[in-house]
Amino acid sequence: MIRLATASLAGTAIEFYDFFVYGSAAALVFGPLFFPDFSPLAGTLAAFGTFAVGFLSRPLGSLLFGHIGDRHGRKPVLVASLLLTGVATVAVGFVPAYDTIGIAAPVLLTALRFLQGLGLGGEWGGAVLLTAEHAPAHRRGLWSGFPQVGPAVGFLLANGVLLALSAALTDAQFRSWGWRVPFWAAGVLAAAGLLLRSRLTETPEFRALAESGERATAPLAEVARGHWRLVLLTAGGLAIGYAVFYTVTTWSLAYGTDELGVDRTVMLGCIMAAVAVKGAITPLVAHLGDRLGRRTLCLTGCAATALWTFPLIALVQTGEPLLMFLGFLGAMLAFILMYAVTGAYLPELYEPRVRCTGAAVGYNLAGVLGGALTPIVATSLSHGGGPPWGVACYLTVLAVCSLGCFALLPETSGRLLRPGAAEEAAV
Predict the structure, then answer these.
(1) CA-to-CA distance for 4 and 14, rounded, in angstroms?
(2) Where are the domains of the chain?
(3) What are phi and psi of 24, to 5 degrees?
(4) Spatial contact of 81 and 119, defined as CB atoms under 8 Å apart
């Protein structure tokens, strides 16, 4: 389990590195580089629009790779999704700016972002099933929490590189070529991830399905016919987690630098510190889900988020590094109560023959509802001077909606993924 969890965490970290480096670059430089004829506000909104495309393509990726995972195995998904995302990310680093190739620049940027999202849409389902379907039932939350650490590691890697470049280069150098370096570095990370994942074995659940001839012939059709309500409830429940995360990591970065005049190095440092704490405690919270239940923690996380949105905005508005960090930390702690247990919760909700498709579609559809729109909506609500209380209202309403969705879902802690699976994995 340690070897599997490590491989799952490493691959997920690389995939999310690719995804997050785009979000930070969109907040910092994509507006003036790819939309120079727009006003600063309109340029930021347009950059976040290309950012949102990645979320829109993630459900499509979950459909494509979910079908592969349910028909041909979890391992092919892990390899193909990593390769697609890595190639697309490296290519972003070579896209010329608008002043070189005109309208083709944002078009290429958007197309590559679409491919990034397509790959990431398949990544999560394969990664969590790798651990969830090997783990014993009483420790499934703990082991499935390791892939959930991957996004934090990927975010820290992406922004650590950006932070170092931002501190070492002049503003002109950073805007000219410095922002491209993290995208080029994705190629090295993808190669390492592919080498690691090539050595993995298929999960016992899929091997059992293949041997018994019970694999779904049309996983998407089965999910749409028999599990549509479950997909919608999981997507609605997880939407607030995405919204909070990208409020902190993407919107606040743009808001702090553009509206409050905070140095981008300071903003990145505050955000990264909060994400580092979140990543460090993820396995602990995931294991807590084995004891208290997945649904219980998800409900608690939604309630905590609803209570923290206004303090978050008030602390960010101060522009003081320590206070902003405390605001970000509170939001990340509320977020991780939901997110840490998701790697076990979603697989437990779906039957094995459609698990890769159902869990991935629900998870990535939540990204559209909470992640794609939040930077755009928050930027629109925070323009015009004064504290952006509209952002807090938006997050509060979304948190209450997510709370309602989780309230309608069952508890699954300790559930066997198939008869005998937990006992076999524990041997």
Answers:
(1) 16
(2) 2-201+227-409
(3) -70, -40
(4) yes
Q: Which of 210, 192, 234 is nearest to 11 (CA)?
A: 192
Cβ-based burial of 160 (10 A; exposed 0-12, middle 13-18, buried ≥19): middle
Identify the DSSP state of 138.
G
Cβ contact 395:240 at 8 Å: yes
Return d(Cα 113, Cα 54) in angstroms, integer.
5
Residue type, 50: T
Residue 403 in this model has a pLDDT that exceeds 90: yes
341 sits in which H/E element: none
Tokens found for residue 258: 């553009």
**Residue 191, amino acid:** A
Rounded Cα distance between 172 and 412, Å, is 53
- Cα torsion for 351, 355, 360, 365, to the nearest 10°? -30
Alpha-carbon span 14 to 86, nearest angstrom: 8
Q: Considering only 77-91, 230-244, 303-317, which range has the smallest mean pLDDT?
A: 77-91
Going from the C-alpha of 31 to that of each of 51, 368, 393, the distances in angstroms are: 11, 22, 27
pLDDT (mean) for 55-68: 84
Distance CA 413, CA 167 (A): 46
Residue count of the chain = 427
Tokens, residue 1: 């389990």
Candidate from 3-12, 74-83, 202-211 with smallest mean pLDDT: 202-211
Identify which of 279, 272, 269 has the alpha carbon closest to the alpha carbon of residue 321. 269
Instruction: Indicate the DSSP class of residue 388.
Output: -
CB 246 within 8 A of CB 235: no
Global pTM value? 0.81
Mean pLDDT, range 326-350, rounded to an integer: 93
Contacts of 168 (CB under 8 A, 6+ apart): none
The answer to whether the CB of 31 falls within 8 A of the CB of 214 is: no
Q: CB count, 10 Å around CB of 120?
A: 28
Fold held by 2-201+227-409 = Growth Hormone; Chain: A; (1.20.1250)
Are the beta carbons of 398 and 370 closer than 8 angstroms?
Answer: yes
Residue with the larger pLDDT of the pair 328 and 226: 328
Q: Are 40 and 20 in contact (CB under 8 A)?
A: no
pLDDT at 419: 43
